[in-house]
Specification:
With 180 residues, this protein is an alpha/beta fold. It contains six helices and eight strands; from the N terminus they run ααββββββααβαβα.
Length: 180
């Protein structure tokens, strides 16, 4: 089975591609199977998806100390496709604590605590989706390919290892300063 045949037969990739054709940008988590190579799976392998890996930003403003999170899945994706596309903070991200059954390590989070620290590419992905929403808010006429191009062109390289970080860390400030 060829690379393109297997992509066409993957229902999750087909769903991403369908949404793309309908004018919807889809951001997907790269996965948490790193640091080994070729650990990006479906639907992140979709050529249209904005595949997001995770960095540890060390809770500093500067990106000079940022590193790719060990758990963040690495490319290449199926068919030697360069993935992830971008990376965003994904280590110890403070988020809403809404799932009483979520088990980070060996402790059950209680809904008595309104927030929790979580790590994973699933924490990085909403940051990128939010940036895309802000860009779309600035210009509702953007097409998915234009939004994806802006995200990729305005990312800042960290390590320079493409299969680890794609185009680099998303640069929110740089993208929001773009003139329509």
């Amino acid at each position: 089975m060829s690379f393109y045949t297997s992509l066409r037969n993957d229902p999750l990739v087909a769903a991403v591609e369908r949404l793309w054709k309908e004018g919807i940008l889809v951001a997907v988590a790269a996965g948490n199977s790193g640091p080994e190579r070729a650990t990006i799976t479906t639907p992140s392998i979709s050529p249209s998806a904005v595949t997001v890996g995770a960095i540890d930003d060390k809770r500093t403003v500067s990106i000079l100390d940022d590193v790719i999170a060990d758990f963040s899945s690495r490319g290449p994706a199926l068919g030697r496709v360069s993935k992830p596309d971008v990376v965003a903070p994904g280590v110890n991200v403070i988020s809403l604590n809404t799932d009483a059954s979520y088990l980070p390590g060996d402790r059950l989070l209680s809904l008595k605590e309104p927030y929790a620290k979580m790590s994973g590419t699933s924490m990085s992905t909403p940051l990128v989706a939010g940036i895309a929403a802000l860009l779309y808010g600035k210009n509702p006429n953007y097409k998915p390919e234009q939004l994806k191009e802006l995200l990729l062109k305005n990312a800042r390289r960290l390590s320079g290892v493409r299969f680890d970080e794609g185009n680099g860390i998303v640069d929110v400030k740089g993208m929001l300063e773009i003139k329509n």
